[in-house]
UniProtKB/TrEMBL annotation:
It comes from Streptomyces solicavernae. This is Helix-turn-helix transcriptional regulator. Residues 18-73 form the HTH cro/C1-type domain. CDD domains: HTH_XRE. It comes from the Bacteria. PROSITE patterns: HTH_CROC1.
Amino acid sequence: MASNVNPTVRRRRLGQELRRLRELKGMTAEEVADKLLVSQSKISRLENGRRSINQRDVRDLCGVYEVQDQRVVESLMQMAKDSRQQGWWHAFGDIPYSVYIGLETDAASLRVYEPQVVPGLLQTRAYAEALIGGALPETAHSDIEKRVQVRMRRQERINSGEAPLRLWAVLDEAALRRVVGDRQLMIEQLEHLVEMSHEPHVTVQVMPFTMGAHPGVNGQYAILEFPDAADSSVVYIEGVTSDLYLEKANDVQKYSVMYEHLRAQALNVDQTRQFISEAAKSYAREHA
């Protein structure tokens, strides 16, 4: 199997297929758990792709679901084997949001709303260092550097010439006004933001303070979509100790509609570039 197999996406696809087989059999997760003498939570984690799955688990589940076609069983077991490979991010050790990185690596498009900071895929290295250091004051410098390296590696998805990630970012004005590092660093970050907005696959919009209340006041979120129709879209909401992944069609639809309202209310692309440039000039005047 090729080394570029994405284990996170393999787990999702495998989990979706196992859920489909269970539902075809007309069984609940609790019934399956009772038959295999495991917890119901294990079955749920296997189906949502959050837990690594081995070939024995697949074989046992196929037995419970009475899958007769050996080719189907072998295909699922191969997916289980692939899902246990390591993605590029594993080389950096324990990354808290590794599931998200796996999804982002395989996504075709990403829509993100950021109310406080510049989105990670559009950050300069200096901004990322200052931001992570400020957000995690008790973290060792080596761990901060590791996180920065991961963030820079993630940016290869939008800098790559081959099928780059389609990124649409709506930022609250607060992300431009919050001084991360110092004013010179902010000038460089905002100039980088304008530069990236000229990429054909990158769209940046700003939601100004003057807009008042809007659909994004509840906080940050991202919507990931994938090139394979078999992979459902995912809404990602970052947390302090744990993250939330929403995959139900109704949930994704609600967040998608909310994002359309955000895009409609935010400054358009040209207005955004002018707005960001003016913010950078204001930092330059203060820095002078």
